[in-house]
Write a structure and sequence with these properties.
The complex is a heterodimer of chains A (390) and B (165). Chain A contains 17 helices and eight strands. Helices cover 19% and strands 25% of the residues of chain B. Classes of the chains: A alpha+beta (390), B alpha/beta (165).
Chain lengths: 390, 165
Amino acid sequence: MADGKILTINMGPHHPATHGVLRLVLELDGETIVKVTPHIGHLHRGIEKIAENMNYQQVIPLTDRFDYTAASLNNLGYCTAVEKLLGIDVPKRAQYIRVIMCELARIMGHHLWIGSHALDIGAMTVVFYTFRDREMIMNLTEEVSGYRLTPSYLRVGGLAHDITPKFIEDLRAFIKWFPTAVDGYNTLLTDNIIWRKRTMGIGTISAEDAVNYGFTGPSLRGSGVPYDLRKAKPYGSYEDFDFQVPVGDNGDVYDRYLVRMEEFTQSLNIIEQALENLPEGPVNVDNPLIANPQLDDVQEDISALIRRFKIQCQGPVVPEGEVYHAVEGSKGELGFYLVGDGTENPYRMKVRSPCFILVSALEKMMLGHMIADAISVIGSIDIVLGEIDR
Amino acid sequence: MDNAKVLEQLKGKFSDAIVDDVDFRGDLTVVVSLEKLHEVMLYLHDDESLHYDLLSDVVGIDKLPREPRFEVVYVLHSMDDYRRLMVKVMVDIDVPVPTVTDIWKSADWPEREVYDLFGISFSGHPDLRRLLMWDDFDGHPLRKDFPLKGKDFDEKWVPSSIQVL
């Protein structure tokens, strides 16, 4: 306002640029943001409470609903946390297939991010190209698990079943095609003068502040801190692969964009290596109390049938103890704090969601910017409300 | 710096504050007395060799029949060599925990979430309001004595109770 009055406006929860049901109360002096109050909880489903009343295998489909744009990564975070609590190692083949599925999920998550982020800022074309390629990955996921968005393909102790020859064939075709697609996204945005003007110098956060505010993942790496759990605390065979961790310099929206664009290439690189070096062998841990017998065995062997029935109804019994295990999700550090009490139900499951912490720091990044820049800041931290509200 | 050295340094500095320590599956958890919590956390953040500069999460746990009833766990990381440390504190019902938002800004929302879902309050927190549940919600859903179905699930729904605004 010209007379210096503060205008309070309500953005969301049904605003398309909030990527779900985030509600922001913005206080404006003219067009400049002077205060931001985020309100969350519109999508709160109480998954942590529900999980306390389910057995360990039944929780897996619930974890798909956290970050539904990259669901396999949530499965990996949960399954590896339970395996850590059980103290078991899954076979190498299962680990490699998990890596393939998770890197595909990461690419899928980044597809949705760049598509919607560019759409919010006004570059409408990008979303059509990313959704074309996202569809290819969804078809791959469907081929291997039967589901497109929420595969629930991972199990505690391994995988639901082995991959098919058609999946490998399709994946090879995708690997061959995808670098061309990434070049296409880069052509549309990286040197685009409007894109640069809308993103450079916006939402800047220094490395020290970013760590203090709890940033992780591409948002932290955009500020120049090379914290990637795949390198920092390798899990699930990530130490076998050769890949780079891209970092930015300035910590603004544009640097976070560059980091994620480079992650497309690095993820594809990891998938390629995993597929070339895919070991032979079983995809489930050799432990009758944890792994489900394969369907072929169940049809021939009565004891396998009984075991399958028991595992489906009861699930594995997990020893007493408390573990925290984190994986590098597509948005940042996705951690699971699990408390086992020696029964078949988790006593407590806490999810450390990267977006939850990022949204709490929105005010820090938005203050002093124009209201139109709020949209690019929200897009740049890549929020998914399913993960924030849980 | 490995877990044993971290524990040794902590015990050397705060011999009376470290109540217990657990090394389970490669991660170290230290149990700290509630009175000394803020002092220990400040030391963990500021000391040059420890330097835990990233607070990942604050976790509430309800161990209902036990006294003290609640546990609050802080998950810390160091960006120097990616060490991980869990700091645990035992809390009785209606006893406030000193906030760590003045040390790590990232503790803001996780502490609000613990307050919302467990009813553990944090003294000195700048903005302690409910986060996930709505403001006039009655109860704390993640407590073990809160029913899974919710409190009013079995109450009969009366259509005439709807108010038209």
